[in-house]
Write a structure and sequence with these properties.
The complex is a heterotrimer of chains A (357), B (290) and C (445). Chain A is built from 15 helices and four strands. In chain A, a hairpin with a 6-residue loop joins strand 3 and strand 4. Chain A is globular, with a radius of gyration of 21 Å. Chain A starts with a helix and ends in a 14-residue tail after the last strand. In chain A, 51% of the residues are buried. Chain B has a two-stranded antiparallel ribbon with strand order 1-2. In chain B, strand 1 and strand 2 form a beta hairpin. Chain B is globular. Chain C has 445 residues and is of the alpha/beta class. In chain C, the strands form three sheets. A seven-stranded mixed β-sheet of chain C has the order 8-7-9-10-11-14-15, with helices on both faces. A six-stranded mixed β-sheet of chain C has the order 2-3-1-4-5-6, sandwiched between helices. A two-stranded antiparallel ribbon of chain C has the order 12-13. Classes of the chains: A mainly alpha (357), B mainly alpha (290), C alpha/beta (445). At the A-B interface, helix 5, helix 6, helix 12 and helix 14 of A face helix 4, helix 9 and helix 11 of B.
Chain lengths: 357, 290, 445
């Protein structure tokens, strides 16, 4: 058993630079609180963890099925509000409200699916865009229940301390990312969903022609994506102790697209990289409290949205597939014969020995 | 009350129609979700504000300068940022979003996040069936008519228009037929930017000019274009009036809920789309293998 | 090219990490965090007000503390609260833990101040609220004193007092209209209520619908557009069809500009009186292209009105330095000066010592006498502990009207009102002007 695990690690992780980096990165994350306990840094990292779950779930729904959702905040907001309402009216604690919120988001995913199954392309995108906006209207119409534009504040904290908040979000994030990565892994022997989702994305009609019930798989994608987005929403609400209309905002829906596409769509880890680079970057730019030119009233930090957008454009122009995918393509090469990934500096495939040139 | 309702619905629909036409063109032809579309409108509105109030130019020069400047910005940003990666659909969308943010932030740096005014082209109002209608609104409807006529002539009577429509239907085949798809898209982008800035010049005086003004109309415009059916300008026109009618109906018959006007309009859009998945006049997507 | 961008990217990140660390620590300063939506008018006013106070204090030598002179140092933090309350929480967290200010002033939008309040209380930092009216923020002091005692209001008084002032203004306009238009005593004035769909306005609408009939007027309808509506033409047409004498708006968002502008363009014959936050600002005239003429709103400052002896010098100084008229969030000026007095009295920067002193303080600000409602069972709603007291001789607010390009004070006018308000006589108040379209349409000859 142990030997098998060891062998797996050696063969499947250490041999591929991308996975090795991912492993080192995730292990490092566990040690961050040992290096610094600065509240603000942990604050940012906790939000990063939460948004990673959210971004990866978008990639799962939109990247893998090709159904670009403009309204992913719908799941996030539904879960945040459900968690808050459950706490406000039934007095439930985070350990119950967060999973229940995620389940509510799953149900919301099914509701959103009904039009989604009939619609394609931009038609679907627009319907998903409309959903959170319609829900926002409903929330504003019943301020006694929902708190109107103030939202529901005073929720119990995730846990007592900043450090345990960090570990909770980190572990939930790792588990969620791992599950979604497995579900989309096209070479996995255990679950078939990965290869089928890939097939649907590449050519839905062809997939249907081979006897795949594409509708069932799209439904599946929305349900899983909705669940994890909801998980993020519940964590967010309890971490900031407030569930407000901002959780349903259009900017949040677009934000998640920015993160994922920047990192690399249809890759799961692209979304992780996107959030881990862009979210702290924005916070770094906020630190940049120096005048643009000596004596000027305008600070660099005032221009952070401008600098941020310019950077996103500049990088995407050279890496239109996304940063993570671009780096992976530089580091890894697929064997032309057995389709296994190899480090780019190898001359022959590590499994079948075929030449990589 | 009823005639006020009907006239208002027409006026609101007219404003939306003008905003939606350009977006419909670029969406239909280039298959490009240009999230920066309404930010061109915002740029034109700021152009009008700056040239008339700050530089003191007369209205016609101001219109000319704003129009030309916006078109140039549109063409340059297409050439620099979008053309080379237009194969990557989602990336293009993202870049247009980033562009819109850059325009917005530049306006904040230049003029601050204050509310401004673009000059009213024809001040005052007319009374039609005892209902007050601003001349500016009547002008909007007239401009919509002219723009639509112009677009129809361009798309059906000229070689360029035929090339644009060919590209809209199938870019690959159009390319094989000797059409320079890249140039056609550039032209389409130029026209779309021009239409956006015309909309800005005509509609912005009715609104308030500020750096975030591009956000809320963007959603409604996308809803209208998709409701009408991709690439169908006729569909967009009809959808604009449907959305306008729904919004005004909410304001008139549910006054305490007039904040719900967009939400209800969007709900109507969703319902119509569920019944007719390809929009009012759209092509059936099933046939098209992207 | 690729390399160039990459180098830019890396160097900016490095610079961002190194530069804040390089800023040499300066001793003998009192650090004041100024947090607000810095890209917007409100945040700009927060900052400008604080800058005036800082310059004034530092020029006079600084703050006397334990025999030493301390200079005031301001730290600017953009909360971006108007667009994103999450950003607001992050900005407050950064401000407190990285810049370590001695106390924090600012805040504007209630939804953004809620999370900022939580963060500030986590660190037991004094937070002077200079912009969010909502009583619910202050009510937390009542429910959990130990946690929230560091939270104080500087401006404005809470929404219940706003409502009550609002009706005083409405009543004044109604009286003037009836008299000047020669309306028969039996005819009831018609009032259209327009309020943005936000929670604070909900309370306003319910009260207005109940109170206006008691004032002898008739409500013809209630419209609730979105606070960010870009076009209220449909609402205006619907309102005009009901033929009201008075339109009673409650707007804090940009819809206030749209509404005033379109109403002016269509020359809706009705007197607009209520709360239009945008009309409180000097930019309103330019933003509406002059079409917001005759709009009357509750306000804090007006051209040439001396609410206290400090008002006019402050207005003059503000105009000279920033070229514009302050809006109410510029009360950060008062907040800094008030804290200076309290720190000198306490001879300490410890919040635990400062809080009781602030509670008992009396400070003559540019907008009235600031006193806090006491903590304890005597303070009943609508009053609230750590909220500023309302009434004649304390803070009253002003009713201002746009009169041909100038923001004039028209309320409280001597002899109008009850409960002590009839005795208020602020120098610089001018008579209310009835819009000509109203006279033309309704005047009985």
């Amino acid at each position: 058993m142990l030997r098998r695990l060891f062998k797996d690690i050696q063969g499947e992780i250490l041999a591929i630079p991308g996975r090795l980096i991912a492993l080192i990165f995730f292990i490092l994350l566990f040690f961050i609180p040992l290096i610094t306990q600065e509240y603000y840094i942990l604050f940012v990292l906790i939000l990063v963890n939460i948004f990673v779950i959210f971004a990866v779930s978008w990639d799962f729904v939109s990247g893998y099925t090709g159904q670009v959702s403009f309204g992913h905040a719908f799941f996030f907001g539904v879960a945040a509000y459900t968690a808050a309402l459950l706490n406000k009216y039934l007095g439930l604690q985070p350990w119950a409200t967060i999973p229940l919120g995620a389940i509510a988001a799953t149900l919301a995913g099914m509701v959103m699916c009904l039009p989604a199954l009939r619609l394609r392309g931009p038609y679907l995108s627009l319907v998903t865009l409309a959903m959170p906006l319609i829900l926002l209207g409903i929330i504003k119409a019943f301020p006694d229940v929902t708190g109107g534009e103030h939202g529901i504040s005073g929720l119990p904290a995730l846990s007592g301390s900043r450090m345990s908040d960090y570990y909770i979000t980190l572990i939930v994030m790792l588990a969620s990312v791992f599950i979604m990565w497995k579900l989309t892994d096209s070479r996995s022997g255990m679950v078939r969903t990965g290869i089928i989702l890939h097939a649907i994305r590449e050519d839905e009609i062809a997939a249907r022609a081979t006897g795949i019930n594409t509708i069932r798989y799209k439904l599946f994608a929305f349900i899983v994506g909705g669940f994890f987005a909801g998980l993020a929403g519940g964590l967010y609400a309890h971490f900031l102790k407030i569930a407000g209309p901002a959780t349903l905002d259009m900017t949040l829906s677009f934000q998640v697209i920015i993160w994922t596409v920047f990192g690399g769509i249809v890759s799961i880890y692209g979304a992780v990289v996107g959030v881990y680079v862009l979210y702290p970057l924005m916070e770094l730019l906020r630190q940049f409290n120096v005048p643009v030119w000596p004596g000027s009233e305008i600070m660099f930090s005032d221009m952070r949205f401008l600098i941020f957008s310019a950077m996103v454009i500049a990088i995407l122009l050279f890496m239109p597939e996304g940063v993570a995918v671009w780096i992976r393509d530089k580091m890894e090469r697929q064997c032309p014969r057995c389709k296994l990934s190899n480090a780019s500096w190898r001359r022959t495939c590590r499994a079948c020995g075929a030449s990589l040139y | 009350m009823f005639q006020a309702f009907v006239i208002q619905a027409l006026v609101t629909g007219g404003v939306y129609a003008l905003l939606a036409v350009g977006f419909s063109l670029i969406f239909g032809v280039a298959r490009m979700v240009n999230l920066a579309h309404t930010s061109f409108l915002m740029l034109a509105a700021y152009g009008m504000f700056y040239t008339t109030y700050r530089l003191g130019l007369d209205v016609f020069t101001a219109i000319l300068i704003s129009l030309v400047a916006t078109i140039i910005i549109g063409l340059v940003s297409y050439k620099l940022f979008i053309d080379r990666i237009r194969e990557h659909e989602v990336t293009v969308m993202l870049i247009t979003l980033a562009l819109a943010t850059i325009f917005q932030e530049s306006m904040i740096l230049a003029f601050g996040a204050h509310f401004r005014e673009a000059p009213t082209l024809i001040p005052g109002y007319a009374e039609i069936f005892a209902v007050k209608v601003m001349y500016q609104h009547l002008l909007t409807i007239a401009v919509v008519a002219v723009v639509l006529l112009g677009m129809w002539l361009l798309l059906t009577k000229t070689k360029l228009g035929i090339a644009i429509r060919a590209t809209a239907q199938d870019a690959e085949i159009a390319n094989l037929m000797g059409i320079n798809v890249s140039n056609i898209l550039l032209v389409a982008m130029g026209i779309a930017a021009a239409l956006a800035s015309i909309a800005g010049i005509v509609v912005a005086p009715l609104w308030v000019v500020f750096p975030y003004m591009w956000m809320s109309p963007l959603v409604m415009i996308m809803a209208i274009v998709v409701l009408g059916g991709l690439g169908s300008i006729k569909g967009s026109l009809i959808a604009a009036f449907i959305i306008g009618l729904v919004e005004v109906a909410v304001v008139f018959y549910l006054p305490g809920g007039s904040f719900l006007r967009s939400a209800i309009a969007l709900l109507v859009m969703v319902i119509i789309l569920v019944v007719r998945p390809e929009g009012l006049y759209g092509i059936v997507f099933e046939e098209e293998r992207l | 090219m690729k390399k160039f961008f990459f180098i830019c990217f890396v160097s900016i990140i490095l610079a961002a990490m190194i530069l804040p660390a390089c800023a040499a620590p300066v001793t003998d300063v009192i650090k004041v965090g100024v947090i607000g939506p810095m890209k917007f008018m409100e945040g700009e006013n927060h900052w400008n007000g604080a800058v005036l106070a800082r310059d004034e204090i530092n020029a006079a030598g600084g703050v006397n503390l334990n025999g030493k002179k301390y200079q005031i140092q301001l730290i600017k933090a953009d909360s971006n609260e108007i667009l994103s309350p999450t950003d607001a929480a992050a900005a407050m967290e950064r401000l407190i833990t990285v810049d370590k200010p001695d106390f924090v002033i600012g805040g504007f939008r209630t939804e953004g101040v809620f999370p900022m309040q939580e963060v500030a209380m986590n660190y037991k930092k004094i937070f002077m609220n200079c912009g969010a009216a909502t009583r619910a923020l202050q009510a937390k002091v009542e429910t959990n004193y130990d946690r929230y005692k560091y939270f104080f209001k500087v401006t404005p008084y809470n929404e219940y007092f706003l409502v009550s002032t609002d009706f005083k203004m409405l009543n004044m306009v109604a009286t003037i209209l009836k008299k000047e238009l020669n309306l028969p005593a039996t005819e009831k004035l018609r009032v259209a209520i327009v309020a943005e769909k936000l929670t604070w306005a909900d309370a306003m609408v319910t009260t207005a619908e109940a109170t206006i009939p008691k004032l002898g007027m008739e409500v013809v309808g209630t419209w609730r557009p979105s606070d960010t509506a870009t076009d209220v033409n449909a609402e205006l047409t619907a309102i005009a069809a009901k033929n009201p004498h008075i339109i009673f708006p409650t707007f804090s968002g940009p819809v206030g500009v749209t509404f005033g502008k379109q109403a002016g363009e269509m020359q809706i014959p009705a007197a607009i009186v209520g709360i239009v936050v945008e009309a409180q600002k000097s930019g309103y005239w330019e933003a509406t292209g002059g079409k917001g003429n005759y709009v009357m709103t509750l306000n804090t400052y007006a051209d040439g009105v001396a609410v206290t002896e400090k008002t006019l010098p402050f207005l003059a100084k503000y105009k000279k330095q920033f070229g514009q008229f302050p809006s109410y969030t510029a009360a950060s000026y008062d907040a800094v000066l008030m804290m200076k007095g309290i720190i000198e009295k306490a001879q300490s920067l410890d919040p635990e010592i400062l809080v009781p002193l602030i509670e008992k303080s009396e400070y003559l600000s540019t907008a009235g006498l600031i006193k806090y409602y006491p903590v304890g069972p005597d303070t009943k709603a609508p009053a609230c502990p750590h909220d500023i007291m309302y009434g004649p001789g304390l803070t009253t607010g002003l009713g201002t009207q746009w009169q041909n390009g100038q923001l004039k004070g028209v309320w409280p006018a001597k002899g109008i009102g009850t409960g002590g308000f009839e005795n208020i006589d602020y120098p610089g108040i001018v008579p209310y002007m009835i819009p000509p379209a109203v006279i033309e349409k309704f005047k009985v000859k």
